């Protein structure tokens, strides 16, 4: 943006800010002089139409009855029950819906005591004895319970997953089981 455009924009901004400041400072005197006033015809209540006037007559009659009761009470006439009726408002919304109650169907409630579902205990791993590990050939092998096994073989429900130079790892129903020789324990 050029320097000339920037200077012109700054001048406009200053003029606008000065106008806002002037209006805010002059708001009080403008109201006092009557220049900032709502026309009086907007403040007057609207006269009811003839059909509406017929509807308001019972309300006016009830209002006049209440005024007469209050006047008689002020004069010392009437009993204590009439005093109570004149001073307490009547509640007439018994048949209306409670706005705080939900219109949605209620959700079924959960049982009061939580049901505990217990899994059966997993069977213990088989009794296996690692007798030796043959390491250094093309495939490592392990001697378990007097038989030779390699990676991927099954031993009494367990699968050989790894053979290391110190231990053999088996998978028994998702649980890893490690076997070591008596020398490496």
Notable traits:
single chain; 185 residues; alpha+beta; SH3 type barrels; 3-stranded antiparallel beta sheet; 7 strands
Overview of the molecule:
The chain has helices at residues 3-33, 50-74, 80-87, and strands at residues 130-134, 141-144, 147-150, 154-155, 158-163, 167-172, 175-180. By secondary structure, it is of the alpha+beta class. Among the domains are: 1-38; 53-87; 130-184, SH3 type barrels (Roll), CATH 2.30.30.830. Strand 5 (158-163) and strand 6 form a beta hairpin. The model has no long low-confidence stretch (mean pLDDT 76).
Radius of gyration: 48 Å
List low-confidence stretches: none
Question: Total helix count?
Answer: 3
Provide the CATH architecture of the domain at 130-184: Roll
Find the CATH topology of the domain at 130-184: SH3 type barrels
- Assigned CATH class of the domain at 130-184: Mainly Beta
Question: If strands are numbered along the chain, what order do they take across the biggest sheet?
Answer: 4-5-6-7
- Strand content is 15-25%
Mean pLDDT across every amino acid position = 76
Secondary-structure element pattern, one letter each: HHHEEEEEEE
Structural class: alpha+beta
